[in-house]
Automatic annotation (TrEMBL), chain A:
Domain Thiolase N-terminal span(s) in chain numbering: 8-266
Lineage of producing organism: Bacteria, Bacillati, Actinomycetota, Actinomycetes, Kitasatosporales
Gene3D superfamilies: 3.40.47.10
InterPro entries on file: Thiolase, Thiolase-like, Thiolase-like_sf_Thiolase, Thiolase_C, Thiolase_CS, Thiolase_N
Family under the similarity heading: Belongs to the thiolase-like superfamily. Thiolase family.
Keywords: Acyltransferase, Transferase
Protein name according to UniProt: Acetyl-CoA C-acyltransferase
Origin species: Streptomyces erythrogriseus
Keyword Transmembrane helix included in the entry's annotation: no
Domain Thiolase C-terminal, first and last residues per copy: 275-397
Transmembrane regions: none
From TrEMBL, chain B:
3-hydroxyacyl-CoA dehydrogenase C-terminal domain boundaries: 524-606
Domain 3-hydroxyacyl-CoA dehydrogenase NAD binding: residue ranges: 340-520
InterPro entries: 3-OHacyl-CoA_DH_NAD-bd, 3HC_DH_C, 6-PGluconate_DH-like_C_sf, ClpP/crotonase-like_dom_sf, Enoyl-CoA_hydra/iso, FA_oxidation_alpha_subunit, NAD(P)-bd_dom_sf
Keywords: Fatty acid metabolism, Lipid degradation, Lipid metabolism, Lyase, Multifunctional enzyme, NAD, Oxidoreductase
Catalysed transformations (reactions): a (3S)-3-hydroxyacyl-CoA + NAD(+) = a 3-oxoacyl-CoA + NADH + H(+)
Signal peptide range in chain numbering: none
Higher taxonomy: Bacteria, Bacillati, Actinomycetota, Actinomycetes, Kitasatosporales
Protein known as: 3-hydroxyacyl-CoA dehydrogenase
SUPFAM superfamilies: 6-phosphogluconate dehydrogenase C-terminal domain-like, ClpP/crotonase, NAD(P)-binding Rossmann-fold domains
UniProt pathway: Lipid metabolism; fatty acid beta-oxidation
Amino acid sequence: MPRTVRDVVFVDGVRTPFGKAGPKGIYHETRADDLVVKAIRELLRRNPGLDPKKIDEVAVAATTQIGDQGLTIGRTAGILAGLPQSVPGYSIDRMCAGALTAVTTVAGSVAFGAYDVAIAGGVEHMGRHPMGEGVDPNPRFVSEKLVDESALFMGMTAENLHDRYPSITKQRADEYAVRSQEKAAKAYANGKIQADLVPVSVRRTSPEGGETGWGLVTADEPMRPGTTLENLAGLKTPFRVHGRVTAGNAAGLNDGATASVIASEDFARENGLPVKMRLVSYSFAGVEPEVMGYGPIPATEKALAQAGLSIDDIGLFEINEAFAVQVLAFLEHYGIADDDARVNQYGGAIAFGHPLASSGVRLMTQLARQFEEQPHVRYGLTTMCVGFGMGATVIWENPHFEGDK
Amino acid sequence: MSTTAELLKGAAELFPGEVVTQAHVRHFDLPLGAGRFALITLDNGHDHTKPTTLGPQSLANIDAAIDQVEKEAADGEIVGVGVTGKPFIFAVGADLKGVELLKRHEDALAIGKGGHDVFKRLSKLAVPTFAYYNGASMGGGVEVGLHCTYRTVSAALPAFSLPEVFLGLVPGWGGCTLLPNLIGAEKAVSVIIENSLNQNRQLKGKQVYELGIADALFEGADFLEQSLIWTASVLKGEITVERPAIDRGEAWDQAVAKGRFIADSKVHGAAPAAYRALDIIAAAKDGDLQKGYDAEDRALADLIMGGELRAGIYAFNLVQKRGKRPAGAPDKNLARPVTKVGVVGAGLMASQLALLFLRRLEVPVVLTDIDQERIDKGVGYVHAEIDKLLGKGRINQDKANRLKALVTGVLDKAEGFADADFVIEAVFEEMGVKQQVFAEVEAVAPAHAILATNTSSLSVSEMASKLRHPERVVGFHFFNPVAVLPLLEIVRGEKTDDASLATAFGVAKKLKKTAVLVKDAPAFVVNRILTRFMGEIQNVIDEGTPVEVAEKAVEPLGLPMSPLVLLELVGPAIGLHVSETLNRAFPDRFTVSPNLKAVVEAGKRGFYVYDSGKPELDPEVAALLKQGDTVLTEEQVRERVLDAVAQEIGLMLDEGVVAEAQDIDLCLITGAGWPFHLGGITPYLDREGVSERVNGKRFLEPGVASVPA
């Protein structure tokens, strides 16, 4: 049977506002599965042309797949969101690149012809599921020195990345972080972020976090607008004495969920769905786990090679800011300035937060909005580093591209 | 301190045990840039198994929350105020435990006024108010929302009602006045009167919206979020809430008249609550809310100080609590599993029992009878009933297949019962027949199997007496219609052991029946009291009182039906049979009416004909009646009947037929449908002085089902 690979598009993406993990965080008493459910329902409301019966898959990523993130959350979230029982679902895990992998995995199935349209997203409630919850690393990792002991501690891997790029100083990392906060605040002021957020009702019974009772979350909690270099200079470097990585130049521990609609371009057009981005290529790459922040570089190399593009063809970058150093390493590798206007125009995870497996779709949603506003840009990419030494990159084409005018 | 706060403080002191509901105020920005909003969450700090109630301290907390938002609204700090509840519960109304404690009219008045004073502030803030009915909403909970400017309701809301009339109150925190002014008198009467008097029927979220009580309906998954987005749109003027105009003309009066008709048909004027509520609804026609609130206060106070409400709360607690934890039942850990049920007999009663066991236990049920034809008919009945359930969508095809496969019929008891854990007989009411059946079953059933009898009047001990293992025989007396009446009298025979009894109670619970432990005494509880009651009615008729006088004499009790209509329902022949049984046991108190005998012998199935649309004495029956010449007044008949009932109950308690008067009342409520406002019957007998007159003492201490001393 002859097969034709089909064009795959990013139809739409939404997310919950991100919260700070912990007892004072906005989502401390909110279930992780409820966060995904709200995002899926918002997608359906925003896209009335999408008949829920036609959804072929619900892929939901979570790093810690137990409790309210377990029980095959892609399936349970679909039922909880009110999707027909005929719509299947599954769970995905690639740690930080979970939602990104959910997108590429369903995209592969769409291209192959197995699906016409799918929901892909992710969730991480790091308050209810702290990093490392329930893990049981094989002792051979250490006994056979398969990985360095720092590999499991992301902050340490970031310090290691600073070692690899001695030119990336703490000063540069802090400057990058200040800019991220500034850009995020500006994006908020210009209404670039709110339009893709679904409000979430949250209950608080403990006065520790503030007023009790039901509230409504409509904005990201982790943001620190007005952050200055001076603010950051004095922060502790918890991962290494006299180190460079601080809470200020890294993403925090966060709660949140994202969801997107991925479809074949034909399906989207036939059903009157928006086409916000067209998938060009995607790639994953492994690196030494102890410098996992290096991962986006080889992943991007592969993705560019597949697409027959060079880094110069990329007009917009959405790089997950797990750590400032990891973004800076990427930029340094490709000879891009730290403050290049193409990079993370709305700011990044340092400001918004990084609920691990949910973040990939946030990058895509923001890139999609930038595409819409910048029709002179043809290609953009979303990339992120992944725990245990990986990188993940997706290259997208702007369907609004107006050619080289 | 405001007068309201003082009033509530005083009320709270009378009710130290209140489960206090907090009114949390939380502020946030609404979506769409609609502005700062204050949301009040009603929460008693427990999970959904302990629903939020509104006692005096709770009201004071809401009052304080409103103090806060009132100021913020006046100062322009907020654009709106919302009220919602904890997960799954909005609020389920006043705390009845607090109502039970009230001893003085002025204290009762304070509760009504306190609620009004607090809630009506919600309609007088400088900003619009919104109620979000997120979960179970009853009584005062519903009323909180009625005082708000707008309401939304969750499609997942399972229960919404104004149940006050059901208990013996009126919706007295604004419900009687506001609801008809919101949705019109006809719908309000349906909610306040009709639903309450129909076993406290509950509305679901969608119906709340369709009735116009709520302005918007949102699905449960993101109910609060969507409600708040809707709120933002309303506040920004993007959504205009339009409510249909209310017909304040003749339709209003007709609706009230219909309400009176419904009340008459249910309580026959015997309980005041429905009528008081209707009076207020009638007066609400002019839209004068304060006048309505004042009338609610008075009605509430009068009713709280009245015996009907106290009996109503007592009855409610019996059904809700004692009905679920039967007095005297053995340790449930002694119960043996029941994995297969046998039914001896395949007649209508046996088939109904088979269906019930099948649906609730979902284990194999095997019917036996004396010939294949009867068996086929019995199994056919069960299959047909399953198909009906399937047709109505109550079960799906898989469940129907499963249930049908579980029910079988065999001629050979040995084949059918060899592995049954529980065998119930529903054969002809004759001791010899039943003993024979049990002997046959014992010969083939496993040694541990419970042998249960659905006898309505025969001695369980005697039935067991010829068995090798009489300790496993229990009485399991259902009431007709089995699917409707909740009562199950569980009879302990002389030799019944605890394990068998525990198993019987375990089965009863699975059958979702209200089980009451009863001693093996003639006709047990309900039939004995009803027969004594009927017997006196028949006696006075036989002696010469006209039938209609005898019938009307007990109307003030507000029983579900008149005595002779009840006899028709039971069947005159069965009534006669029970009266004969009881006459043999207690010849001095139970008579066998010659007229009833004549009616039965003439093959009549009832006393009335309904050709004119209402019951009229069947001329053929009238011709059979031979009456004496002692004509009593209604009052005399009533006294005689009530005296007889009081005497009989007194004797039953002396004999230890049940543990307490509470069990008698529970039986009458759940097995005979006797009304809440009578509290079954003993609160009424106490209230009317009958107990004192006949037995020299009350059945219940003051305060148990009456205003405390």
